[in-house]
Design brief:
alpha/beta; 5-stranded mixed sheet; 2 domains; Nucleotidyltransferase, domain 5; 8 helices; single chain
């Protein structure tokens, strides 16, 4: 019973392992068992073996960016579309822009501006929005970037972008009355400065996208600095 449980455990924990690989591990653990027996007790999975979406993201974080749009409404009932390009390794917003009339040509230009001088990522995650037309596909091919298109009705597959958009709304935009495009651009720049330099992230082991040094007790007393109109504060130690 013990060996059967261990075979199933290894099979579940190592999605890409077959019977020969598990057999080799068991031999190293002192179990003398036939490889065909291992195959009988392995966990059965439907379809071909392949890495999960989460595994793909984890394995390629430094090489992936994600893009998305979100809408913002002003006090005069005008709607603006904010386009984001997010680098997944440190959750950095590497490019954003605003328009009232999004189009494939406009989106294409944002990609060109965001990745000059051979700085394009290996992978780009996007949803199935029709705005990503042929111009965008041609540009990605020119940049040698492979697009990864999310499944239909699966926003969780672009979860990093979804989370930062939610943070922007909850932490700032929901508390601000926007007057127009210039005002929106200014407050987003302020938020991203706070987001990059001060805001800690669970996924970054409680660090900010731009790493913050740890200040020990011997530096001095804790002081605070209001940011974003006092909605948030940054804390630091001041030398005595």
């Amino acid at each position: 019973m013990e060996i059967r449980t261990l075979i199933r455990r290894m099979s579940q924990e190592n999605y890409l392992w077959g019977a020969p690989r598990i057999h080799g591990e068991l031999l190293k653990l002192g179990y003398d068992i036939c490889e065909s027996t291992i195959a009988n007790y392995m966990v059965r999975r439907p379809g071909p073996s392949s890495q999960t979406w989460r595994t793909f993201i984890t394995n390629h974080l430094p090489d992936i960016v994600a893009i998305d749009f979100f809408t913002v409404h002003t006090a005069t009932f005008k709607t603006f579309y904010v386009f984001l390009i997010l680098s997944l390794d440190r959750r950095r917003v590497i490019h954003f822009n605003i328009t009232s009339n999004p189009s494939a040509d406009w989106t294409n230009m944002q990609l060109i501006q965001a990745f000059p001088f051979d700085s394009a990522p290996r992978y780009l995650i996007r949803d199935r929005d029709g705005i990503y037309g042929q111009q965008v596909l041609d540009t990605l091919k020119m940049l040698d970037t492979k697009q990864v298109v999310t499944s239909r009705r699966s926003p969780w597959q672009n979860g990093y972008c979804e989370r930062i958009i939610g943070s922007i709304r909850r932490e700032f935009l929901d508390h601000v009355i926007l007057l127009g495009e210039r005002h929106l651009r200014r407050v987003l720049k302020e938020y991203f400065a706070y987001y990059h330099r001060s805001r800690t992230h669970l996924g970054l082991e409680k660090d900010a996208p731009e790493p913050r040094a740890v200040q020990t007790h011997d530096v001095g007393a804790v002081a605070s600095e209001p940011v974003l109109g006092g909605l948030h504060h940054r804390y630091h130690r001041e030398a005595a």
